[in-house]
Amino acid sequence: MEVESRYVAVRHHVEGLPSEDDFEVKAARVRWWPESGEVLVRNLYLSVDPYQLNRMKRRSASHLAVDGIVPGERIDAYGAGEVVASACEEYKEGDVVAGVLGWEDYTLFRPSPGVLMSKLAASDDLPLSHHLSALGERRRRRRRAPRHARMQFLLICLSVSVAPGGDRWIEHVAGTSGMTAYAGLYEVGRPEAGEKVFVSAASGSVGSLVGQFAKLAGCYVVGCAGTNAKVDLLKNKLGFDDAFNYKDEPDMKSALKRYFPDGIDIYFDNVGGETLEAALANMNTYGRVALCGVISEYTDAGHRAVPDLLEVIYKRITIRGFFAWDFLTRFAEFTGVISDWIRQGKVQVIEDISDGLESVPSAFAALFSGDNIGKKMVKLA
Amino acid sequence: MEVESRYVAVRHHVEGLPSEDDFEVKAARVRWWPESGEVLVRNLYLSVDPYQLNRMKRRSASHLAVDGIVPGERIDAYGAGEVVASACEEYKEGDVVAGVLGWEDYTLFRPSPGVLMSKLAASDDLPLSHHLSALGERRRRRRRAPRHARMQFLLICLSVSVAPGGDRWIEHVAGTSGMTAYAGLYEVGRPEAGEKVFVSAASGSVGSLVGQFAKLAGCYVVGCAGTNAKVDLLKNKLGFDDAFNYKDEPDMKSALKRYFPDGIDIYFDNVGGETLEAALANMNTYGRVALCGVISEYTDAGHRAVPDLLEVIYKRITIRGFFAWDFLTRFAEFTGVISDWIRQGKVQVIEDISDGLESVPSAFAALFSGDNIGKKMVKLA
């Protein structure tokens, strides 16, 4: 069986703000045959995430944890799809899977401990797209780690443990925006009822969930975003106590002083830069910063936060970088809790879905111009 | 009874590098009488610490936790002395005390829950000066906190708890270099045997103890300091695995790469600035930064570290500011452990003692020119 399968590639390493022109859609054919041992998936939804930009750079701290992307080659990405052919017991034609697929029409994979793929239950009552946004699949597999633990994974991995024999293994797990929001807020932020939480990029895929989770934890929550429509969404649909358009605030420090007269206890940081500096200046003693993303630095490495470390010391602040999958032992709990919240209407899942593989480049570029609201993904025809 | 008691004051707020000229020794008389309820202490040793510079500034994040110093007025400081007159049951003439005294010949205090003072046991076999350096006194007292919890304390304070009646109280405790080193290394750094520890300002009062404690925890320890004599001390007397003079290293990042080919797991930061940036660049996944001091920023607020937050995220690094007294529940253990280590010769206490109250200004200024080795203090005649 052979199918036409276009894929999206970068033409070259991308160092600054990405544009559609940095990408091309390339034609290819994918061949599957019964003896291949492989599974052929027709992709239905593909995730479009800012962190991929770091993989597209020639050099990036990102490459310490996630492989760089090679110009001209296919790009792996989280997604959901339908099995159209399988040479493997575990998967049947018609099964719906979520896991590491690619920015392409069809993905071929060989089930192995190193491959992240979950079969969704037929009884699953939530929209398939939610498996790329609020929900997350869990799959724990073990394989011997390569020497320097640089691995081919994405929203995946990386709790290194020592196996009984003394060998080092790496446990893989897939995470999504929901898992990132949950782990970052609850495990890094550790909110208590009544605490004050500030979320930047609050209408984004992670931020929109963090704010709602923090409200469910009994916190006072203020978010910032870059358009008035986003601010409206935060205040009127997502239940944030308050929200503001950071573009209307020439002085972020005094803006935060207005929105947090009693100080900030937890800052969920998606942007870095001056916003982090201003949050530290307004933070209370024993404040926590959950450092999830520094999107202001993704497109401009020279644009960095210059935190006042005296404040960090005298206020005994903790700044912690994290990945969702550092908390994999709690993933089963996360998925259950988040699913229930969605079913009960306590959490709104905001998704921003573009149509067709050819829209991946514009969808990706839009992430950095602030055009998306909620989780950005592409639905294939 | 009335005694002549000179005191050291600042002539004005001190904003940059301090010099002797910023200080003056002023004459005063202190009067004690039996009905005063007060205790008169002749000061024997006075602690000289870099953090006092932040108190001397007109504005500083320091003032969030510790009162600023008023030009012309006496300056409270940790010290040890001998009771020469007492109107209080608890203290007798001849008792030796350690606690919050002042940069002055005699200190008068009225025992109260708000005053930090410990009577040393007559059986104490360690040098009195050690109570200002490696050891620490513990005194837990309760008093009603002022409204905004800004308090007149130094190496003191600040675990806010809610008393049974719902009132807020503040528990005071005194900390010293030993407590800071112990708490920062063990509670913030959480070393495991075999981990790699980097200490800046490693020949200083805190750094010299951190390195020795880390060796006792089974770690590989490298320190940096600013003179070859200090480097010798670290390597040949204090048992560091290696040490280097940072002034000989134009590129700190590559220097650390040489000294830590397997990366840094814990960075005990006393200096901030480029050293912190370089340590982050050389840090391993799940690295911890115990942020104890940023002396490079004390004298120049414009001189700030610009950490690469992408590294902090992708390496899941935790940066945490701390005070020793955040860990007051473990102080009794700390004091016991450190005393034993000193008696057993496992820990060397390095002290740099100047003579006479009039040497306080030069001793203080020397902290910022890198002239001191170990704990800086002044012994009064």
Please render the helix and strand layout as text.
Two copies of one chain form a homodimer.
Chain A: E1 2-4, E2 7-10, E3 23-26, E4 29-31, E5 39-47, H1 52-56, E6 76-86, E7 96-102, E8 106-109, E9 117-119, E10 142-144, E11 159-162, E12 168-171, H2 177-189, E13 196-199, H3 207-216, E14 220-225, H4 228-237, E15 242-245, H5 252-259, E16 264-269, H6 273-281, E17 283-291, H7 295-298, H8 309-314, E18 318-321, H9 331-343, E19 351-355, H10 360-367, E20 375-379
Parallel strand pairs in A: 13-14, 13-16, 14-15, 16-17, 17-18, 19-20
Antiparallel strand pairs in A: 1-4, 2-3, 5-6, 5-8, 5-20, 6-7, 7-9, 10-12, 11-12
Helix pairs in contact in A: 2-3, 2-9, 5-6
Structure description:
- The structure is a homodimer of 381-residue chains.
- Chain A is of the alpha/beta class and 381 residues long.
- The first copy, chain A, has helices spanning 52-56, 177-189, 207-216, 228-237, 252-259, 273-281, 295-298, 309-314, 331-343, 360-367, and strands spanning 2-4, 7-10, 23-26, 29-31, 39-47, 76-86, 96-102, 106-109, 117-119, 142-144, 159-162, 168-171, 196-199, 220-225, 242-245, 264-269, 283-291, 318-321, 351-355, 375-379.
- The first copy, chain A, is globular.
- Mean pLDDT of chain A is 86; it is low at 139-174.
- The A-B interface holds A 54, 60-62, 64-66, 149, 158, 160, 272, 276, 285, 291-294, 297-298, 301, 304-323, 326 and B 54, 60-62, 64-66, 158, 160, 272, 276, 285, 291-294, 297-298, 301, 304-323, 326.
- Strand 18 of chain A pairs antiparallel with strand 18 (318-321) of chain B, so a sheet runs across the interface.
